[in-house]
Design a protein that fits this description.
globular; Rossmann fold; about 375 residues; alpha/beta
């Protein structure tokens, strides 16, 4: 379908990428492309609770619209809160419609994002075509984009969707922005909790509760950290998300060298600022890995079942993917407990990649 709209008169655009954290982060370059083409347009973004903080306060977004799907789902199951949740949904739809968006982008390609795109009332609704989206979400889009190849990085997929509107313009570098609030919080953390040695080596051993099959063993992370410290010195800091502190402490306890586990999990924006001030990030396929790459901190990504094409880090930041191909990988077998795809990944491989990326940032 051709765009039935004067592209030079577009003033109101809405982005729909509700979750997850890493996927929201990887949609930021597409936002940059839209903002470059339409510097004066009102650009809004609809997002769920977990990734809201990554977007709030950005200078290139005019409005971040929160859609608290998890809390709404709970309330709809509770007779006491059912009608209140229903009223919230109707207010949310009225709010979206009242914005009179001209173009809606469904970057997620799921039923929930397709429905939200349709609810905006935008006359132009751009999304992925059948075969490149899921749960029949393509039916809610009236401009459908086919990908040139079956597999592309998530970042490239999103850029292609944005280019359906903006055309073939250069892709600007678009990073995660932090505020003075996060800078002050990390200033305090550095003064009171860290040894301030360099290089600062961040280890993030956890994964989300829904994807434990992507998790490399604590022993591997511990041995990797010890190898790096023995060769280049510095300070190892183990970060973690909510509910992951035990994994972080396990890595610390297995290390022969000293390391620091942060006393509490940082929020997403504090995490971004902390990673920005670090010299290397080492972890699996998680949202924090993508956050690190979007603040220009070199990344060593340990991939077992993860597809290395679709899930590569931000390509404008140096990175290395550590992966040993096996017949069953990539996969999305969430219940897999074999871990075959991790068996031949060694701490030596990971440490060598990290030291290579550190370059001259050794023993400062």
């Amino acid at each position: 379908m051709e765009l039935d709209i004067d592209e030079d008169k577009i003033e109101r655009i809405v982005i729909i990428r509700l979750s997850a954290i890493g996927d929201v982060v990887r949609t930021i370059p597409a936002l940059g492309l839209l903002r470059k083409k339409y510097p004066n347009a009102h650009i809004a973004w609809v997002v769920e609770e977990l990734a809201y903080d990554i977007l709030s306060g950005r200078s290139d977004i005019d409005e971040v619209i929160l859609l608290p799907l998890k809390s709404l789902a709970k309330k709809l199951k509770n007779p006491r809160h059912f009608f209140g949740a229903l009223a919230y949904i109707f207010r949310f739809i009225r709010h979206l419609r009242g914005k009179k968006f001209q173009v809606s982008f469904d970057f997620q390609g799921l039923l929930k994002s397709g429905v939200v795109s349709f609810m905006t009332g935008a006359p132009i609704r751009i999304g992925f075509d059948k075969g490149f989206s899921k749960e029949k979400s393509h039916i809610f889009s009236n401009v459908r984009v086919k990908l040139p190849v079956p597999k592309l990085s998530r970042i490239e997929r999103n850029l292609l969707l944005a280019r359906r509107l903006v055309g073939d313009i250069n892709w600007p570098e678009t990073l995660i922005e932090t505020t003075p609030k996060e800078k002050s919080a990390i200033d305090l953390l550095e003064r009171t909790k860290l040894f301030q040695k360099r290089p600062r080596i961040v280890i993030h051993p956890g994964t989300s509760p829904r994807t434990p099959y992507k998790k490399w063993g604590a022993d591997g992370f511990a041995k990797t950290a010890d190898l790096i410290l023995s060769r280049v010195g510095g300070e190892v800091v183990v970060t973690y998300g909510p509910g992951e502190k035990e994994s972080a402490i396990e890595v610390k306890n297995l290390m022969a060298s000293e390391s620091t586990v942060l006393p509490e999990p940082l929020n997403l924006m504090e995490l971004a600022e902390f990673y920005r001030r670090s010299d290397i990030y080492i972890g699996g396929d998680t949202g924090p890995m993508h956050i690190a790459s979007f603040v220009k901190t070199p990344v060593v990504a340990i991939f077992g079942p993860t597809d290395p094409v679709e899930n590569e880090p931000y390509t404008k930041t140096p990175f290395r993917i550590i992966r040993v191909p096996v017949a069953c990988s990539p996969c999305r077998e969430r219940k897999c407990k074999k871990g075959t795809c991790f068996e031949d990944i060694t701490p030596e491989m990971v440490a060598n990649a990290a030291i290579e990326l550190l370059g001259d940032k050794k023993g400062r």
